[in-house]
């Protein structure tokens, strides 16, 4: 037997050896110690070794390599037979279980022995059946036929519902056994091995690997952790289809040019341009990509979705909301991508209890409003069903049973309605438009949409809660500011009341009249400032340099009508701090006023201004009733805590907060019956500038 070698067998068996070796390594990495998986790895490994020996024989031409390859061919067939016999004994549903007979194991051993005998006859030149070649071809043919019989028995023993997982490997091995039947039958009839058929045998084996891989991924009982990426399958299929399409276009163009005469070249260019243009249109067509994805999901995977990828995609779409698109648009896109829909709209519940369209994608604006207590909303909340309007229109479901809203006919291309439920509350619902390609809405699609809808509802609920919290904080800030303003108004009213009490006795005193006019003017200015602060709804925090000596003198002067008399310690330095003058005057005035209120007419209250290092110190001392350490620690600086009958309990709290806001400190030393000392320390203006805090002054 002689061969005239060409490059075909070299490349053919090289491809088979590399493909089987790579596949075997991948199976080894994915193997989880299962017996069937181990047998599959052995079969693939022996196939790789068999292809490698045939490649070496094609390159070197040594006869002993051919004989060794034939021996490995017997081992390869035996490994696949043993794998099939092991699959015959796989557990299935009890009521559909078909008892695995014992004869396949015994017959398989006998057939493998017969095939090995045929190889021995070829190697030793024993003409048992005609010639050594015919003997080898006859035993090999019988082995291949037995492989088909065993495969047919294996396929029929699989329950109907389980054949989906075994069908790819059955097709792969059936193709290999059928090819061997053809090759060895030809060798038996013509007493020679066809070199062309033998040359392509390696490529034939390589082409069956994807089918074996698909079955391995579909059968977890083989204990392989194999996952075929949908993206890889999609892009690979699209690339292969594009290449085949361009090849057909090129072939058609060639023959058109060859037979077209003088018009041939022009027609060839027009055909090539039109073909490439059509390919570009298909590549950018969403409907075409959708149909291809649905086709691959139906025929190549056990489940329609790769849930890890889909869930990551939904989470990513929701997490990037705000980067050029609203949360509503992101939700519509995430849900529509799951079912190949071009877009839709989202209806959310408003403060009035009505659901209205808040966002849309590739959908016209709709003014449809659904009441919260409507039958449709109650249906969505109680059932949590995804409403399929296509089934309603076709009569597969009744409109009343499906909870179809009365306005469904007003929106064209309306297809699915997905409820958005979070913690048992109907947050809203999403309307999806008719898909680009027909999609079978089965339990898998419905469950995925429900789960994604709940995830989207949690985002909407969190968004609404955040908006409500922000609004509550705004009201809280306004209420706090209002409380401070009311507190200041109370102090101003107290000044006016004191002035009125003294007016009967001192109304003819020119000095009192002048003081009264100054007090009224001061109260009027303060009230205007407070009104402006309320109208702007934000505290006035603009900071400017404030001269403390002038500010303290003004406070002392404004309290001159009070008893006991307020005194300013002499020798006050001229220092400035960055603050809002009116607010700083207000908190210092509050501390001074509290000291005056706590001191009898025969006591004393003093204010001292000094400088220690780079800090301005304002000390207010009184000989009043004093405070306990527990009161200072637990109540003095707490809001709405007061011992005064008409007090609000926020003056000391505001004073401490503002001093800290300026970067200073407020400390208190007091004893019951011995008076109190309030010490306020603020960074002087030069220190603030040097520390880079001028930005705080706006």
Describe this structure in words.
Mean pLDDT is 77; it is low at 91-100, 398-402 and 687-698. The chain has 23 helices and 13 strands. The chain is α+β, with helices and mostly antiparallel strands and 698 residues long. The strands form 3 sheets. A 6-stranded antiparallel sheet has the order 3-2-1-6-5-4. A 5-stranded mixed sheet has the order 8-10-11-13-12. It has a two-stranded antiparallel ribbon with strand order 7-9. GO terms for molecular function: ATP binding; phosphorelay sensor kinase activity.
Taking strands numbered 1, 2, ... along the chain, how are they ordered across the largest sheet? 3-2-1-6-5-4
Q: Find the count of extended strands (DSSP E, 2+ residues).
A: 13
> What is the makeup of the main sheet?
6 strands, antiparallel
Distance between the termini: 98 Å
- What proportion of the residues is helical, as a percent range? 55-70%
């Amino acid at each position: 037997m002689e061969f005239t070698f060409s490059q075909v067998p070299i490349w053919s068996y090289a491809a088979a050896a590399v493909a089987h070796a790579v596949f075997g390594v991948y199976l080894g990495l994915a193997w989880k110690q299962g017996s069937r998986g181990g047998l599959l790895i052995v079969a693939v490994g022996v196939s790789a070794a068999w292809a490698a020996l045939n490649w070496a024989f094609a390159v070197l031409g040594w006869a002993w390599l051919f004989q060794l390859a034939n021996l490995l061919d017997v081992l390869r067939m035996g490994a696949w037979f043993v794998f099939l016999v092991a699959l015959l004994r796989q557990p299935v549903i009890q009521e559909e279980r078909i008892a695995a007979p014992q004869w396949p194991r015994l017959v398989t051993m006998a057939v493998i022995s017969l095939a090995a005998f045929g190889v021995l006859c070829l190697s030793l030149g024993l003409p048992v059946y005609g010639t050594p070649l015919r003997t080898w071809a006859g035993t090999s043919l019988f082995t291949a036929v037995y492989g088909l019989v065993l495969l047919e028995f294996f396929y029929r023993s699989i329950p109907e519902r389980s054949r989906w997982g075994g069908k790819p490997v059955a097709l792969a091995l059936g193709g290999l056994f059928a090819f061997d039947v053809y090759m060895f039958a030809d060798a038996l009839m013509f007493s020679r091995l066809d070199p062309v058929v033998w040359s392509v045998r390696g490529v034939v084996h390589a082409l069956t690997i994807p089918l074996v891989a698909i079955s391995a991924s579909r059968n977890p009982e083989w204990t392989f952790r194999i996952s075929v990426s949908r993206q890889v399958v999609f892009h690979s299929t699209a690339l292969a289809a594009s290449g085949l399409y361009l090849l057909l276009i090129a072939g058609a163009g060639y023959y058109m040019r060859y037979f077209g005469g003088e018009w041939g070249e022009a027609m060839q260019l027009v055909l090539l341009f039109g073909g490439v243009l059509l390919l570009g249109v298909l590549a950018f067509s969403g409907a075409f990509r959708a149909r291809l994805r649905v086709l691959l999901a139906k025929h190549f995977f056990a489940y329609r979705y790769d849930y890890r990828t889909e869930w990551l995609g939904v989470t990513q779409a929701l997490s990037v909301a705000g980067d050029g698109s609203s949360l509503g648009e992101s939700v519509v896109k995430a849900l529509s991508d799951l079912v190949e829909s071009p877009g839709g709209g989202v209806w959310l519940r408003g403060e009035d209890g009505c659901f209205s369209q808040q966002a849309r994608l590739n959908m016209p604006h709709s003014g449809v409003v659904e009441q919260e207590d409507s039958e449709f909303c109650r249906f969505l909340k109680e059932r949590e069903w995804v409403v399929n309007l296509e089934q309603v229109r076709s009569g597969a479901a009744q409109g009343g049973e499906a909870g179809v809203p009365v306005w469904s006919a007003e929106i064209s291309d309306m297809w699915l309605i997905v409820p958005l439920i979070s913690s048992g509350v109907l947050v809203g619902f999403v309307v999806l438009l008719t898909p680009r390609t027909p999609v079978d809405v089965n339990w898998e699609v419905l469950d995925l949409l429900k789960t994604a809808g709940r995830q989207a509802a949690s985002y909407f609920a969190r968004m609404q809660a955040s908006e409500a919290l922000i609004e509550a904080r705004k009201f809280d800030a306004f209420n706090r500011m209002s409380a401070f303003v009311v507190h200041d108004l109370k102090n101003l009213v107290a000044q006016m009341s004191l002035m009125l009490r003294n007016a009967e006795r001192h109304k003819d005193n020119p000095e009192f009249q002048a003081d009264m006019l100054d007090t009224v003017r001061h109260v009027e200015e303060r009230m205007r400032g407070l009104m402006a602060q309320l109208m702007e709804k934000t505290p006035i925090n603009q900071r400017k340099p404030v001269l403390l000596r002038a500010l303290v003198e003004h406070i002392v002067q404004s309290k001159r009508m009070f008893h006991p008399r307020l005194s300013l310690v002499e020798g006050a330095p001229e220092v400035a701090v960055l603050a809002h003058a009116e607010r700083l005057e207000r908190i210092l005035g509050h501390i001074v006023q509290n000291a005056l209120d706590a001191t009898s007419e025969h006591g004393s209250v003093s204010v001292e201004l000094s400088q220690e290092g780079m800090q301005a110190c304002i000390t207010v001392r009184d000989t009043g009733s004093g405070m306990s350490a527990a009161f200072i620690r637990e109540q003095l600086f707490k809001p709405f805590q007061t011992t005064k009958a008409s007090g609000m309990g926020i003056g000391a709290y505001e004073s401490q907060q503002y001093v800290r806001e300026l970067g200073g400190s407020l400390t208190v030393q007091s004893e019951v019956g011995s008076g109190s000392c309030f010490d306020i320390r603020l960074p002087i203006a030069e220190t603030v500038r040097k520390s880079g805090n001028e930005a705080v002054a706006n």
